[in-house]
Amino acid sequence: MAELWFGLLCLSLVLFVILDGWNIGAGVLHMIVAKSDLERRQVIAALGPMWSWNEVWLIAAGGTFVLAFPRVMAVSFAGFYLALWLVLWSFLLRGISIEVGGHIPDRLWQSAWDFVFAFSSVLLAVLFGTALGNVIRGVPLDGTGQFSMSLFTDFGVRGRVGILDWYTLSVAVFTTTLLAAHGSTYLRLKTTGRVHEQSDLWARRLWLAAAVLFVIITLETQIVRPELSGAFVHRPIAWLSVAILFAGAAAVWNGLRRPSEPRAFAGSCAVIASLLLGAAASVFPTLLHSTLAPEHSLTIYDGATAEGSLRLALIWWPVAFVLAVTYFVAVMRNYGGKVRSAGDAHDLDQIRGE
Amino acid sequence: MIEDPAYWHRLQFAFTVTYHYLFPQLTMGLVWFLVFWKWRAVRTGDERYAVAARFWTKILALTFVVGVVTGIPMEFQFGTNWAGFTRYSGGVIGQTLAMEGMFAFLLESAFIGALVWGEQRLGPTKHFLAAVGVAVGSWLSAYFILATNAFMQHPVGHAVGTDGTLVLADLPAYLLNEWALVQFVHNQAAALVTGTFAVAAVGAFYALRGVHTDQARLYLRHGTMAGLAAATLVAFPTGDAQAKIVARYQEPALAGMEGRFETGPMAAITLIGQPNVKERRIDNPIKIPGVLSFLAYGTFHSDVRGLDKFPQEAWPENIELLYYSFHVMAGLGTIFIGLMGLASVQAFRQRLDATRPLLWILMLAFPFPFIANTAGWMTAELGRQPWLVYGLFRTREGYSAVVSSGDVLFTLIGLTGLYFVLGLLYLFLVGHEILHGPDAASPHRAPVPVPVEVGRG
Prior knowledge:
The structure holds two protein chains of two kinds.
Chain A: H1 2-33, H2 37-46, H3 51-68, H4 70-79, H5 81-100, H6 107-137, H7 166-190, H8 193-224, H9 226-233, H10 236-257, H11 261-283, E1 286-288, E2 298-299, H12 300-303, H13 307-332, H14 349-352
Antiparallel strand pairs in A: 1-2
Chain B: H1 5-44, H2 47-80, H3 83-117, H4 119-153, E1 158-160, E2 166-168, H5 171-175, H6 178-209, H7 213-249, H8 251-257, E3 269-276, E4 281-288, H9 291-297, H10 319-348, H11 356-364, H12 367-384, E5 387-389, E6 393-394, H13 405-436
Helix pairs in contact in B: 1-2, 1-4, 1-6, 1-12, 1-13, 2-3, 2-13, 3-4, 4-6, 6-7, 6-11, 6-12, 7-8, 7-10, 8-12, 10-12
């Protein structure tokens, strides 16, 4: 039962990273691919009417985390206290900038919010990368079953580690690049005109950079947690993730060359899903690895709530999931096609401002 | 107190949740006006309703987004600031927290964008359904979070696990907690009051300035009549039921709310007076005998136990604030019924737009439901003290032990600054929309249709 809930938690997180990943990625590139005010409105409009639905998957994942693994949720959130508040503040700024940026038709107003949007998106990409790096590297869990970390210590990856070290920082660089690549692939699919051309150009550059960084990160992970690769090769799901990674990478490559925008985008989603799946498969069943002593690590079996509670939740969780996907399909059926940029485009009212 | 981390964790949670709830109460109150007006517009084709719905959608959208961005930290604080509580009861409250995300947030966030920007694209019927989606989603979200709170007020459906933490034993009992049902109807009626006062206030503002006359009349009529209904519901039967449930399950809280230190029949309700906890009495009280007995137990002669019957460690910690919160809530609630009753009579006689003093009062009254809602929640949460889960788990045991006072103070200061700016921004933008007004000539958010399907990718 704990394994199943680990799977559902991963599912909601993967959905969050794919769905909100394109918002974050588009935000990282916002000031780069869109130069004029109108183009920047176009980028925001291209995020679609459901950007907050995408973000809500993080809340759903957070809820699922408390539901299934309350003890680990409590330990990790308290341990990452300040870093998590930075994430929450970034979300706050990002959400406000998307919603109010187009509200007043004034250059200064819009430029200011465009900058806030880009800045908070970069922060989010970096923070999520750091978080992923911390989960893989481990945290200084001690005999009390708790931890609390400084922002950084000696930048080493053993013992009394900090949130930032050479490994978590390089994961942050990788995820920022990857999410930007994902965002550019999304914008390439959803826009026309100059933004489309620029996104296309940046998609090529960023995917190349992401591929190079991926090789580096894999080697680094081998240094930081050598035992993971041993676990990895014995798990069928890990091999499935490798297969998805190759298929996704091929689709991205092919979609960028052909050029087929939906194919590249589908490939981009597959690559992200496969990387998270692979990471989950290699750390399983540990949720929080201890850098001090392996026996202090928290696994899904230590952290899960009672079997009975999990079984009860299994009655309603899948129903809610199917309903949520139904809403997505019901709304997005009305929002196919691209968002144009020209001054006469009144597609989404946001472009025009008011 | 300053040295005590529990104090800072409590202060931060109290601040963030109080601030957050200013926005959802307005959203949940306004959204049914939108549903109603959109339904009337579809049925009658009357352009007035479409214009009204369009205008209030803009206010709703701004309120909604502030509610969302201030709401995200709430769920995360269960882990960051209240790790002890999450470890102890996450196996139970995790259910409703996850349900809120999965059933409610994914519903309302799916349709809010379509509601705000999609009128032209979706057409009248689908756009109406989007409004219904947002309305149902926001009210569902309220139910799940109130069920979570109800477990803290009156825990049911749980069992104690092998390691001493709580596990869920009975999901229907937990979800249909008596406290949750009562609190839900009381709280939602109060949210409607906030919405109706806002609608009536904007109507009064336009009527006094002599602009948007048609729209002003509509807002005043619907705002005051719905306001009278909602304000009455808050008091009876929902407020009455809430008082009885507090009397049944949280006797020390009831005694604290009334500042009642002695036990006896014909318990009085205090209209005015200051609790003096040191001397254990109410200073300069004006009381009506028997009313508290009647409110709590249905007869004037019932015994109401005072704080003297409980050991001091079972008393709510801040009796003064609890007492004032309860009296502010109940006092304002009573005034709301009178004001909306008077205004409804005038609206019914078609005289309201000519009764200028009443319009002035309606225009300036809109902040008071926010105060009453906040005071009501302070009553509920201060009355629950010193327990985090009533009778099971003390507030002192719940905070994150690894997070120091200084760290919490740092985030609290950061949040205060951010929320201050957010509040200014919200008021500025809502003010901007209200001054711009519902303009039938240029339907905002209803853009000119142009062909946009230039190929699906």
